[in-house]
Amino acid sequence: MIIVMKRDASSRELSTVVTRVEELGYRAHLSHGEERTIIGVIGNGRPLNREHIERMSGVERTLPILRPFKLAGRDFQPQDTVVEVNGVTIGGQQLIVMAGPCAVESREQLLEAAHAVKKAGASVLRGGAFKPRTSPYDFQGLGEEGLHLLAEARQEVGMPVVTEVMDPQLVPLIATYADILQVGARSMQNYALLHAVGEAQRPVLLKRGMMSTVEELLMAAEYILSHGNKRVILCERGIRTFETYTRNTLDINAIPVLKGLTHLPVVADPSHGTGKWELVAPAARAAVAAGADGLIIEVHPHPEQALSDGAQSLKPERFAALMDELRLVAEAVGRKI
Amino acid sequence: MIIVMKRDASSRELSTVVTRVEELGYRAHLSHGEERTIIGVIGNGRPLNREHIERMSGVERTLPILRPFKLAGRDFQPQDTVVEVNGVTIGGQQLIVMAGPCAVESREQLLEAAHAVKKAGASVLRGGAFKPRTSPYDFQGLGEEGLHLLAEARQEVGMPVVTEVMDPQLVPLIATYADILQVGARSMQNYALLHAVGEAQRPVLLKRGMMSTVEELLMAAEYILSHGNKRVILCERGIRTFETYTRNTLDINAIPVLKGLTHLPVVADPSHGTGKWELVAPAARAAVAAGADGLIIEVHPHPEQALSDGAQSLKPERFAALMDELRLVAEAVGRKI
Amino acid sequence: MIIVMKRDASSRELSTVVTRVEELGYRAHLSHGEERTIIGVIGNGRPLNREHIERMSGVERTLPILRPFKLAGRDFQPQDTVVEVNGVTIGGQQLIVMAGPCAVESREQLLEAAHAVKKAGASVLRGGAFKPRTSPYDFQGLGEEGLHLLAEARQEVGMPVVTEVMDPQLVPLIATYADILQVGARSMQNYALLHAVGEAQRPVLLKRGMMSTVEELLMAAEYILSHGNKRVILCERGIRTFETYTRNTLDINAIPVLKGLTHLPVVADPSHGTGKWELVAPAARAAVAAGADGLIIEVHPHPEQALSDGAQSLKPERFAALMDELRLVAEAVGRKI
Amino acid sequence: MIIVMKRDASSRELSTVVTRVEELGYRAHLSHGEERTIIGVIGNGRPLNREHIERMSGVERTLPILRPFKLAGRDFQPQDTVVEVNGVTIGGQQLIVMAGPCAVESREQLLEAAHAVKKAGASVLRGGAFKPRTSPYDFQGLGEEGLHLLAEARQEVGMPVVTEVMDPQLVPLIATYADILQVGARSMQNYALLHAVGEAQRPVLLKRGMMSTVEELLMAAEYILSHGNKRVILCERGIRTFETYTRNTLDINAIPVLKGLTHLPVVADPSHGTGKWELVAPAARAAVAAGADGLIIEVHPHPEQALSDGAQSLKPERFAALMDELRLVAEAVGRKI
Q1: What digits encode the pLDDT tens for the residues D185-222?
Q2: Deepest of C19, D31, D177, D336, by most Cβ within 10 A of its Cβ?
Q3: Residue A89: left (phi > 0), alpha (psi -120 to 50), or beta?
Q4: Helix ranges (DSSP H) in chain D
């Protein structure tokens, strides 16, 4: 950390800050510039709380030098993490496509979707049993019945299943049915939930909050990692901006940024990232071209009847066409689907 | 809801949409303009899922006419809700100031803060026992021990206590100690939590998410109201914008907007809304001038030693001076503190 | 336009609004819903000023039905505009890469860059002579001397040249040297400048403002088109969001959105869109995969000595490698470079 | 400036960076931490281009220590600047209210508004002759005819006049009619215009761009100051955020932030800052309570007939009532109107 003293800080203020830094177990290294004196705080392995210093008399501001995440960073682990789940590997050479309906609505709907996405080349089946909805009057998912249907679909089509968990209490239940636990965008900073999935024996698909920075996403991953679960998959799913034409703005920059900062696999969600089915294909191709390790895509056999997110779901035939496009783009960037 | 048909929609597409609207139990009212045909959907009391229609052939887009919240809106209840808690009324003529440390750190710290804010004129004591922190390595609060200390402080100074709840499982425990349950900004769309506090017998202080629109805040309140708890207090606490000089941007517009849309009391949090102690006073005065029903302010006897949010906490003497300023501003807008 | 009346609007207020709509030369079409009466305003070809109506008694709000742009829209011209400049066509099957230094710094620097980008496959040379800089103390460009150098480079390498114009007075001068006039992001709503380039006999590269919506970009294009210049090329160059890790957030969604709404060519600027050279390649590949008609990329022979934007400039050898990657991605989406 | 070296930077890379810093005329001061080596760059009065260093091998990133503005900052001039124009002083104890119609539409409209705002206590008359409009099909202002009317109104009511200038070429013309030159939000980074008003003999009202940080606003002021014009008044007028209920989000925090960083007067525009007339009064009161030196407010005798911004204009009687409210709030914070 760097401490910038005010222009008119007195030498007494300076020495008080230095003393405080040293009391806290750090070394202080002074540098007298023409307009400001700055103090380099030399660490002892533990981060120093910036706010303790910023409130001291004579201090203008502080600047962090190190990134706040550790376990998630490439400093800690340079080589890529590859998450293995039921024979599917995420984060390797092969791109993984997770697909299926936004919400599990019925046995027929789920199985029709599952067979279709499997046939088109998806490796993981997605489907929501417990749905976060902005309105209490909207369909909230089938709950445990949805989990039974997911388990049945997994059995029938032979694909691992990813589903969202919102309530820490339900982690053990959902973990008995699902192969991958999804932490949704609205739950990215639900620390009780991060704690709970950090102790689960299942890989976690962690979605970036719609107004969370890349660093905050990595700090949320850090919560899970620090509770012992090393199998975390990050997901860029669009951020909230001033643009209202699309539901969210898929942050394509975040994909290479994350790949540079962390060893964890990074997938993209072009369905939520755009909110409009006709934009899903170009956004999916872009994510692959930018280096994503996979995609998660909403597919519904009859989107116009979907109980949730119909506007952004692909029909099975469009999804199959998209998979063909993605194979070409993946190959162009030296990957495979 | 209004359905806008595409410019080149066929009459067959139009009639299919009309049939669908009628099948769903609504009436369709056509209006043929020069460039577009639009369909007015006349309600049956239940909202129509826009996405069912937007995916239909020939449809360009849909426009909602009604706001999605009901119980929270002034259409439903024109007169102001006044929340009463242990003799303190929030939402009436009197402005209420809630104050205290960000986190409960020790018996001494809490009691010192409690006596100071009480003396300066605060009506409710704030203090966090379970803290949401972006880093798993930061102080996470004293937990249940903090609740004991809050109960002791309430007893000693005679003020109701507000504290944050993050985990739905802990609602019953926290409700036995706290007079007001706070749902923090990061939990505003934690639906399991909204459900749990909706069934609690305690008023709820619901903070706006830093990424949430005014409408989403009201929909979160709607969750609580629809589960039977009518005592909801809304809190504007700053939103995330591109400006980085302040930690958040206190959305002063939101105060009169909310007062117009809802009957619920609206308070403001200038501490989180700015993130810098030297901005707390001007932001607090502004919130009162804009019509807030109260404030929640962080006060710490020794901010430079605070384990959390020291940079935005006021010292007791500054808080007392601010209370004097606020009395004058409140009077200028016809209110009292 | 749709007018939504307040729930408690009187019949007198309703009839006053209807009369006003008719006085203004439109027809009013009423639809009485359960909770609101709405009025469809049927056009006469001219847009109705929403604000005239929104201030009337009994009116809750208005909703526009038609997009505000005309000449830029696909309703007006369904087929793609292809801009031809000195034998280079932009907006067709072939993808166009514009490349060169951010600022023209010297004859040597410009020629070295020009030869390098030409050799690697770029079709248009970029280079700034008049530079918009946030600080008055930064290098402001070589001015007219820079234009001479650009003309010389064009002659020597045989590529058309694009350069920025900021001052409407300088449009005639710059148009004598440049083949394409660039309107920068900060000038997107400089209406005097849009007017001036709208009357120039040169194609215009119009960059999206960093906080401008897609619709505002199209309205800026509308200004140019409405002054008679049909050769407008749109450029997505990153928007400002809360994320600070990258300088801007390249809005990849905007590319397919624009291609759907307008017939004008759309290119992307991954250099400004990311602000970091190491992100330029993934963002460029993503833009091509998302359907961009071209790219504009900063290349500098010695980025560490650049007087402007060195952090986001590619070295010639990296640019050449990127061109090879882009050829593969372009082919994967059925285009050519 | 601080240079942070990469964790694995070699000693050769380190010495190359140090040599470069010294070649550029600065001194380098090394500090070896546990995880990173950092270099403090000790200045020679001129700022060092960060990008020159960031592209060097072994460098992770750089951190600026000093704010980039000088003439605008309190380091340069601690005491408040008070702008005097025709007997009106802006930036002193007295709060100044500028009011009038968005656009000058006719002699009658302008004079009616001018008399009304004068009577209610405004000190400066506002009115647009040249209007920036997002659509080329909207009313663009009366142009020079509008300037004549403003001059007539000034004569008749005896108030200085503020009007917007968009085109650098028109600065001399407008300066012959107007007492204060307004640079609008969309022009805040129009450097040709900043240069032109910097050389004019008139005070400048500089509005913050809706996409601009506080620091960028100060850098725009720096342009004007560095061209010799010391009479700059800053204006917070709302920023663009994700919230769509209001047209903009008035950044109330920016008022005390600016007052801390700069000696220039700061006024607020609650009309554009909210976009809705019913929010103007609470936002205006809030701005005064937060420490603004004045306000600029749109007043129109017949807002429902306004050719521009009718939705946010106050009627004269509401403006007069607001002035009464503002007098009370001003007094509460120790100021006068």
Answers
A1: 999 999 999 999 999 999 999 999 999 999 999 999 99
A2: D31
A3: beta
A4: 11-23, 50-54, 107-120, 144-157, 171-177, 191-198, 214-226, 254-261, 270-274, 277-289, 316-332
Q: Using the structure block, give the residue that is written with the tokens 């005065």.
A: B285
Please judge whether C311 and D54 are an interchain contact, meaning their C-beta atoms are less than 8 angstroms apart.
yes
What secondary structure letter does DSSP report for B47? Answer: P
Please say if the pLDDT value at position B329 is more than 90. Answer: yes
Strands (E) located in chain A: 2-5, 27-32, 37-42, 59-63, 83-85, 88-90, 96-100, 124-126, 161-164, 180-183, 204-207, 232-236, 266-268, 294-298
Residue of B34, B42, B63 with shortest CB distance to C43: B34
Per CB-CB distance under 8 Å, the chain C contacts of D186 are: 189-190
Q: How distant, in Å, are the alpha carbons of A62, B87, B184, D285 from that of B237?
A: 24, 25, 10, 19
CA C269 to the chain's CA centroid: 10
Position A5 confidence tier, pLDDT thresholds 50, 70, 90: very high
pTM of the model: 0.94
The dihedral through the CA atoms of A105, A107, A110, A112 has a sign that is negative
The per-residue pLDDT for C35 is 80
Could you read off the pLDDT of A308-320 as tens digits, one per residue? 777 889 999 999 9
Pull the structure tokens for residue B12.
């067959």
Task: Give the number of residues written for chain D.
Answer: 337
Best residue in C214, C218, C243 to probe A by mutation, most A CBs within 10 Å? C243
In the chain, the amino acid numbered D5 is M
Region of residue C146 (left: phi > 0; alpha: psi -120 to 50; beta: else):
alpha
- Find chains touching chain C: ≥3 CB pairs under 8 Å: A, B, D
Three-class secondary structure assignment of chain C = CEEEECCCCCHHHHHHHHHHHHHCCCEEEEEECCCCEEEEEECCCCCCCHHHHHCCCCEEEEECCCCCCCCCECCCCCCCCCEEECCEEECCCECEEEEECCECCCHHHHHHHHHHHHHHCCCEEECECCCCCCCCCCCCCCCHHHHHHHHHHHHHHCCCEEEECCCHHHHHHHHHHCCEEEECHHHCCCHHHHHHHHCCCCCEEEECCCCCCHHHHHHHHHHHHHCCCCCEEEEECCECCCCCCCCCECECCHHHHHHHHECCCEEECHHHHHCCHHHHHHHHHHHHHCCCCEEEEEECCCHHHCCCCHHHCECHHHHHHHHHHHHHHHHHCCCEC
The C-alpha angle with vertex C115 and arms to C113 and C116, in degrees rounded to 5, equals 65
| Main-chain dihedrals φ then ψ at residue C27, nearest 5 degrees | -105, 145
CA neighbours closer than 13 Å in the CB half-sphere of residue B267: 27
Most A-contacting residue of C253, C258, C271 (CB-CB within 10 A), to test interface: C253
Inter-residue contact B169 to B143 (CB < 8 Å) = no
Checking if the pLDDT of A172 tops 70, the result is yes
CA C302 to chain centre: 28
Interchain contact D243–A (C-beta under 8 A): no
Which phi and psi (to 5°) does residue A214 adopt?
A: -55, -40
Q: Which of D41, D46, D39 is nearest to D60 (CA)?
A: D39
Q: Convert the pLDDT of each residue in A66-84 to its tens digit.
A: 888 999 999 899 999 999 9
Nearest CA-CA distance, residue B164 and chain C, Å: 26
pLDDT at C324 over 90: yes
pLDDT tens digits along D269-326: 999 999 999 999 999 999 999 999 999 999 999 988 888 777 889 999 999 999 999 9
Highest mean pLDDT: which of A156-165, C129-138, D59-68? A156-165
How many CB atoms are closer than 10 A to CB D64? 13
Token representation of residue C281: 């390649």
